[in-house]
Amino acid sequence: MKNIFILIFISIAGIASAQFSIGNDAALSCLQSQLPVGWVMSISDNILSIERIDSVMTLYANHINEPPVLPDYKKPSDEERKILFEKNGLKTKFIILFKLEPKWDNGKIEQSNKYNDSINTSIKSLWFKYGIEKFYHRAEITTGKHFDEDRFEPKTKEDSLNLGNYKSEKAQFEKSLILMPDKCLYNYSLFTSGQSCYEQTYFNHSFSDIYPESANDELWKVCEAINKYCDCSK
């Protein structure tokens, strides 16, 4: 089965009706000119897509915990790797997606940041409202690890009730947070999942090998070009 390997996910923030095109932004035109051969850029509605035309094969590989390479190690030939990937790998595609909005001006960004700061302050106050800080200290004392509210197991009914109320109220606050643009062009603002292209690609590739290897090099070049031309400091 053919799957799509999405490297950057689309945010779900709303957007007013607008027309977007590559030619309407010099930064997008520059980015398009720097794409490796075999990569295409397009815009559909408010979604910017950067895609490698040919498919790749991906294979699970834990590079974080892999043992050191021995001196007598012989790297598999390209043909050997191809056979291995065709037998055990997954056929997929490299696609990078952004949501586009008309460029946010400095006033909108400043106002949105202030609003989010106030919401985050309210979220922090919930720690004291529901006594969550004691869970934090208890976790450090008993396990030597930082408190993780998603993995914490309450010891009493009161703990369970307080933690449940805390998570419920926190979730309501988080729904009201304004999603901020991750990258900016001359005329557009770009939205991702909150991780930069480089970070998201590194995260995925920590646990996968790619065939052909040249596709991996191409992907890094695309990510570097995105970081260069999609700069929020413009």
Task: Please characterize this protein's 3D structure.
43% of the residues lie in helices and 18% in strands. It is an alpha+beta fold and 234 residues long. It folds into 2 domains: 5-104 and 181-229, no CATH class; 106-175, no CATH class. Strands 1, 2, 3, 6, 7 and 8 form a 6-stranded mixed β-sheet that branches. Strands 5-4-9 form a 3-stranded antiparallel β-sheet. Helix 1 (26-33) runs antiparallel to helix 7 and helix 3 runs antiparallel to helix 5 (157-175). It is flat.
Order of helices and strands: EHEEEHEEHHHEEHEH
Spans of at least 5 consecutive residues with low confidence: 1-6, 8-17, 194-200
Percent of residues in helices: 40-55%
Shape: flat
Mean pLDDT: 79
Quaternary class:
single chain
Radius of gyration: 23 Å
Total individual domains: 2
Profile the largest sheet: 6 strands, mixed
Distance between the termini: 42 Å
Keywords:
single chain, 234 residues, alpha+beta, six-stranded mixed beta sheet, three-stranded antiparallel beta sheet, 7 helices, 18% strand
Give a nutshell description of this structure.
By secondary structure, this protein is α+β, with helices and mostly antiparallel strands.
Topology:
Elements: E1 5-8, H1 26-33, E2 39-44, E3 47-52, E4 56-60, H2 78-88, E5 90-92, E6 94-102, H3 106-129, H4 132-143, H5 157-175, E7 183-184, E8 188-191, H6 197-205, E9 208-211, H7 213-229
Parallel strand pairs: 1-6
Antiparallel strand pairs: 2-3, 3-6, 4-5, 4-9, 6-8, 7-8
Helix pairs in contact: 1-7, 3-5
